[in-house]
Amino acid sequence: MKDPIIARCSKDLEPIIPRYLARRREEIASLRAGLDAGDYQALRIIGHSLKGSGGGYGMPALSDIGARIEKAAIAADAAAIESLLAEHADYVERLQVVFV
Amino acid sequence: MTDAEPQRSRILVVDDDPSIVDLLEAFLQHEYHVSVATHGEQAIDLCRRQLPDLVLLDVMMPGLDGYEVCRRLKSDPATRDVPIIFVTARDEVDEEIRGLEAGAVDFLSKPVHRAIVLARVRTHIVLRQQAAKLRDMAMTDILTGVANRRCVEERLDSEWRRCRRNQVPIAVIMIDIDHFKLYNDAYGHQAGDNCLQHIAAALKKCLRRPGDLLGRYGGEEFLCLLPETTLDRAVERADELGRAVMALNIVHAHAADERVVTISRGVSATVPTGETELADLLEVADAMLYDAKRGGRNRTTACPLGLNAGQDAPPKN
Asked: In chain B, whose CA is at the least distance from the CA of A23?
């Protein structure tokens, strides 16, 4: 059992957090598809928008992963994106949200 | 603007990322009425349908991007004055500059933070409310609460041009309170002010259509603007105004016959052409007002400007 990662979110985000996390899980599949197709433009957009949203939800680590995906996609660095995908999946799997 | 039941300010959130829309909505919905658009065309459409008080606009969107949405909103007189705050990634200084040049009032960087969003939004909402209040004050007669002369002149000008474009008649009624100086002398200025207030309210109540305007044009002079109205219809409305004021039953012992406060009305109308001018229409209405005074007051006198006062429109449907 891996250690949980705790994210502290404001209570009034409680209704929208499940949607946000469901989209992040779908995003893992999109990243996979982008990598398999070598579609760096699509990967760049995914990274850019993740960069823009994570911190707002109290998950700055996701913004950081998004920023690095965007950068790696611009560099067409498949290996880096592969490892970021794993990091992304690991984060979402271990995440535990605490509402404050 | 009324003090009762203040309306929530309307904010339009535009972003193609549903996660950002969700988040901004969660931040704002306790204080504001929030609507959302997920692409540029929808944003423009929503703005035209119901003007928001503020737009939070994403820059990078498929289809119309934020700059293009901004440009289109700024080029349409109906949406031009809505403040726009661009929302974009933190490290993009070029985007920020480009957005400000496109007419944005401010910038928010993603990831967005509640306190910053709320502070920026509040600043621009308050500015907008203050601007609206000042505009309101600049256009309202302080004593009677109806449009002031500045407002009347602006509307006359724009309605004149609109009616000329559409080739429809425009009518004005010049209104003057009969023996108002005698009334002031006899009952005092406080009573005179009250009299003006009651008359303005009674006249305004007679307005029927959204384009109609009543304003205070001088001390005891009012002007009623009736776009898309023929001379005959305007005369009917002027008579109605006269009856409405008599119905107030404001005692005026020094008035000639009626022993109550009355008004005289001068009416003119025309379908504007390239040869006629707004000033001519006002001059005819004013001349008619003097005719009404000379003819014994408390009456309507009317004359078209030129030969063309418009035909009564056939009943619709």
From this structure: B19
